[in-house]
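I am writing to request your help with a piece of structural work I have in hand. I am sending you one protein, given as its amino acid sequence and as whole-number tokens for its backbone shapes. Kindly check, if you would, that the fold set down in the tokens agrees with what the sequence suggests. You will find the record immediately after this paragraph:
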Amino acid sequence: MDLLTLSLFILGFIFLTYGADVLVRGAAQLAGSLGMSPLLVGLTVVAFGTSAPELAISLQSAFNGQPDIALGNVVGSNIANILLILGIASLITPLVVSRQMIRVDIPLMIGASFLLLFFASTNNEISRLEGGIMLVGIVSYLSFSIFKSRQTPPETQAEIVQEAGVTNDADKTPWSKNLLLIIIGLVLLVIGSQWLVNGAIAIARLFGLSELIIGLTIIAIGTSLPEIAASVAACLRGHQDIVVGNVIGSNLFNILLVLGATATASSTGIHISSSALFFDIPVMIAVALASLPIFFTGHLIERWEGGLFLAYYSAYLLYLVFNATEHALLPAYSAIMLWFVIPLTMLTLLIFVKRTWRKDIQAN
């Protein structure tokens, strides 16, 4: 891999991040000037923008004939969103998990994850029809979110609007400028995704890594950078209660919108490799399921739980490296994780859930 390819690979990350920000800003201001409320813009346009990098990468890789990158990008991003982003954010300050999130949004995210596994296991691919079903799912979720937003208290609406960066003076900005921002954002996303995918393929070939591994690691973390920055900024501004919602919403968009649109746009759908079907997608589901006890305990993600998230993400990345390089320590490492670390962690979480349940009963 030459220096030019590496430089374009790094620039691809920068273009994706900046392009998504410019696209969201322009689209949000244009939508506001057309009469959409700031809250509605935050729940739709801005929510879409958090998945814009993943969508650009997945579409580009599908058109280039590298479906493993598209799938690895989404699965890896969803794992990183929970373990990495929530881990980092909760180390800064404990994160609040709303009851609405536990009752509705998190079960929907888990349901979407199982839907992906079901589609993938039927014929080792996500067909165009199944992609269309996913798109119907994200439209339904958006409709539900819009309906619920009308019942949101004014003070909560103001908090969401402030966190989304949507202002009420959008009509002061000329529509031509907003349209130009949208065009610039789209161009940066397209160019950045192309450079990033081409660089990822070159890295995979250079080190003998599969495209799936590259998608699960480098690209997944890179496309999650906007969420990481937004989550850290939200914690520092005292809006830690919105961080979990952003992560869960991003995961839903990644599965239903990104994979749905990619499968629909591709003439052959998205092929699912055996490695993704029997390991990576189940790991994504396991992370979503395992997070439920943590979300449930006191409706908070404490600092020690955030540290646990980061430890498991590091362990997951180490497993990917061992597996990709066929390292001699892989069997022993897998056995330790499977028979000791994971069961001990789950037992600890179950104890905390039981204690929380007892406290709730005594309080009522």
Summary: The two ends are 64 Å apart (CA to CA). DSSP finds 14 helices and four strands in the chain. The first strand starts at residue 95 and ends at 96.
